[in-house]
Amino acid sequence: MADLAPHAVSESNSLGRLHPERAPTARSEYQRDRDRVVHSTAFRRLEYKTQVFVNHEGDLFRTRLTHSIEVAQIARTLARAMHLNEDLAEAIALSHDLGHTPFGHAGQDALNDCMREHGGFEHNLQSLRTVDLLEERYGAFDGLNLTYETREGILKHCAPKKARELGALGRRFIDGTQPSLEAQLCNLADEIGYNNHDVDDGLRSGLVDLGQLDAVGIWARHAAIVRHDYPQIGGRRLIHETVRRMINSLAVDLIEETSRNIVAAGVHTLADVREAPPLAAFSVGMHAEHRELKHFLRVNLYQHFQVLRMTNKARRIIIDLFGAFIEDPRLLPPQYLEMANTDKPRAIADYVAGMTDRYAIREHRRLFAVGEI
Ligand code: MG
Question: Residue 345: its pLDDT value, please?
């Protein structure tokens, strides 16, 4: 890749793959990672997994697949502008949500509750488990055998107790070092992505309205510019013109502040990045505005009674499914029944976490709807 900064991840400073493989001929190692993710089963499932709205609530809402593509777009822009490894940023972004349960955070929280006595459930760790273990595509190994740097980026956070089980990959959560800049930026690209598309989806759903958003700093500032430039504008065009400005201003601010941090910390190599404090950051002012937006969405969208009704039902589905399989694992499909022989709760969590929204709803119906025997 041309013109990489000296502190970028490159193939020459890569820590490689768990199972050594011959170098690819026409692509970089990180392009290969991306390609493996795009061809995986877990990636296709993202199309039918929710962010905020359940998949069948409307055709135009974001799903985890469109969210991941939007995050990859933002991450690539950030990486290219900062002369970092764009292929790596793309690979991390496209895989960052692979371990998500059906029904978004409601599903993750419910499954975590079910797994409380059995090591817990965390979607970040599940993403890693998916690419390291659960995908079945290669003769020589389980999982996708991705590079260390992509795996490092997928594992955004991890409790120290779990980290100790992960060897080199977990070490940074114990000794307080940082991942690559590509990984740090993907993390913030994720936030830029979901906060902005949740504004768009929230308005589309009618659960929040423009009047409410005009009280939110970052929205109000950009909407005022749009209304000034296009006095007649309204409806969808006002929303899109405002959202695109918010995304752009967040991305540009992130690039500028992170670049300043790199200089201020005297960072010259990838090793310096890992040793330095976190470098990827918004400026103080932008950080405050971004937090205000997140708070707005939490109170007005994620905790809207109509969303809570959905998440409550989703929670029940996950708990019912888990309970039925724990009680009688013979109800599991054969592949998971076999896995259950070694670790029953974990095999059930893997099965449930892999489900799409509609698969979980159907499976629930198959197991519990008496009229359907
Ligand atoms: Mg995400």
Answer: 97
From the CA of 190, how far away is ligand 1's center (Å)? 5
Residue 105 pLDDT grade (very low, low, confident, very high; cuts 50, 70, 90): confident
Cα of 73 vs centre of ligand 1, distance in Å, is 13
d(CA 115, ligand 1 centre) in Å: 22
Distance 27 CA to ligand 1 centre (A): 26
How far, in Å, is the centroid of ligand 1 from the Cα of 206? 23
Longest dimension (CA), the chain: 68
Average pLDDT, the chain: 94
| Cα 233 to ligand 1 centre (Å) | 31
Å from CA of 185 to ligand 1 middle: 13
| Least trusted range by pLDDT, from 87-91, 281-285, 329-333, 366-370 | 366-370
Distance 187 CA to ligand 1 centre (A): 8
- Summarised one tens digit per residue, pLDDT across range 58-84 is 666 788 999 999 999 999 999 999 999
Which domains are assigned to the chain? 31-307 (1.10.3210.10), 308-368 (no CATH)
